[in-house]
Design a protein that fits this description.
This protein has 176 residues and is α+β, with helices and mostly antiparallel strands. It folds into 2 domains: 29 residues; 129 residues, no CATH class. Helices cover 42% and strands 19% of the residues. The chain is built from 6 helices and 4 strands. Strands 2-1-3-4 form a 4-stranded antiparallel beta sheet, covered by helices on one side. β1 and β2 form a beta hairpin. The protein is elongated, with a radius of gyration of 23 Å.
């Protein structure tokens, strides 16, 4: 009787363990940004009404003329926040401020006369071209969902209240 009771407890705890951990393991494999499974979102600071924020939205214009939103995470398989960290670094020209600058960036700096003379987001067109090609590579050549243009729209929230999130700042656009 004791052996049967022991087996029942082991079976119940095994099932309970699977019920708890299988969805968690599945989420780490397939989901990158869905609460409560991503720690980096849980540990983010709450809304700071004193500091405004800028953010970007990636969009594309299809061959059929439709404007669509594009999620970079689906193109690069990177973590959600890391894509936008890369975008922000590209907008602020951080690749030109590294200790070891790429030779193409050195040549550009020599042409314009230094980092201070670069326009904001100097390498954004290169990033957009790469993302646009990645998107189009997943579609057949005859698809009307293929992109002809990809663009990055920058917006700002000025702070002070939980409203007015979509103040347009600028846009970068690349023809594919």
């Amino acid at each position: 009787m004791k052996l049967q009771s022991e087996r029942r407890w082991i079976t119940q705890y095994t099932i309970l363990t699977l019920v708890i951990f299988l969805p968690l393991l599945w989420s780490f494999r397939y989901v990158r940004n869905l609460y409560p499974f991503t720690v980096w979102n849980v540990m983010m600071a709450g809304g700071d009404l004193q500091t405004g924020r800028s953010y970007c939205v990636l969009r594309g214009e299809t061959v059929a003329g439709e404007t669509i939103d594009i999620r970079p995470i689906e193109l690069t398989n990177a973590l959600y926040g890391r894509n936008w960290t890369m975008v922000n670094a590209t907008i602020t020209n951080q690749s030109f401020k590294l200790p070891s600058v790429h030779p193409a960036n050195v040549a550009l700096l020599e042409r314009v006369g230094g980092v201070e003379n670069l326009k904001q987001g100097e390498r954004i067109p290169d990033l957009l071209l790469t993302w646009g090609n990645l998107y189009n590579n997943h579609l057949p050549p005859t698809s009307s969902r293929r992109l002809r243009v990809i663009r990055l729209d920058m917006y700002q929230w000025s702070s002070g209240q939980y409203a007015d999130y979509a103040t347009f700042i600028t846009s970068w656009r690349t023809q594919l």
